[in-house]
Amino acid sequence: MANNLYRSEKTDQASESNDANQELQITSNALDTLSNIAHRFTNALYPGAHLVEVRDENQRSSFCVGLANEKVATGLSDVEQAWVAGTIAVAAVETTSTTLSFFLYAMILHPNVQEQAQKELDRVVGRSRNPAFSDMPFLPYVRAIVKEVLRWQPAIPLAVPHVLMEDDWYEGYFIPKGTSCIPNVWSMNRDKKVYGADADEFRPERFLRRSESETGSEFILRDEYEAEDGHCAYGFGRRLFSFSSFCELVLMRNEYRVCVGRHVADNALFIDICTILWALLIEPKPSIDATKVKRGPSKDILNPIPDFQCTFISRFS
């Protein structure tokens, strides 16, 4: 009995010793890490130094790298550059995620649309590779889904305000020069004179016409929507630019009020929606009626996302 107690006591002491050594080891590693960070920050204060290693020959292209390289040409300070980069990030991230959420909601409301898009993807892409941007001309139905989501549920229902440069009249109303006008994108996107009696409904086919070719494609985009958005989600302003760089375009954003990232957004939504539909089945969560969900909390100027739930099922075993 005594031997057992002695062994137990020695075991407990050894365990405590190991724990103490482990704690000391962790503490030592943490101190080394903190010391290394402090050392790097101190060195970065010297002129010409960098907080991280910079290898021009290996760096990946990005907007921020381009902005930094054009610092002399743009005349922006470091703080102004940070604001430009931050504006692009905030404007792109929230609006794109909101649009993708409405896309998922549309898919559980309209499984027939999802099925049609997946038939197109299976025919064009197959199952041996991921969708690519080079597939875009051959995926008119998916492109129509992107347009219809942006029309049906624009991420920002009210566009950027404009100021009248001269007096104007509109439907009997006099609007003096200098008046701020806020375009009602929501109403314009659901104009029954433009989109038909079902303008409030989600129907990608409104941008399509039946194909007469023998390539296997059931639909093609209507001619007028090959170059045009077919919606007002990106606001208004000049759409053709002759700027030498995207940075210069951002600097001129007060004059050119159309969304400066519209082409980036279109491409991002296209490839995201393609990949989701190619890989997954999107179904409503069982026991939940997707047609009766309520709007979620308001997020400043963004269109509130419905409080819905869905299930993702792999299409490939």
Automatic annotation (TrEMBL):
Q: Which GO terms describe its molecular function?
A: heme binding; iron ion binding; monooxygenase activity; oxidoreductase activity, acting on paired donors, with incorporation or reduction of molecular oxygen
Give the record's GO CC terms. membrane
Spell out the subcellular localization from the entry. Answer: Membrane
User: What pathway does the annotation place this protein in?
Assistant: Secondary metabolite biosynthesis
Source organism superkingdom? Eukaryota
Q: Name the cofactor(s).
A: heme
The answer to whether UniProt assigns keyword Oxidoreductase to this entry is: yes
Which Pfam families does the entry mention?
A: p450
User: What keywords are annotated for this sequence in UniProt?
Assistant: Glycoprotein, Heme, Iron, Membrane, Metal-binding, Monooxygenase, Oxidoreductase, Transmembrane, Transmembrane helix
The region called Disordered is annotated at 1-21
The membrane-topology field of this record reads: Single-pass membrane protein
The entry's family comment says: Belongs to the cytochrome P450 family.
UniProt protein name: Cytochrome P450
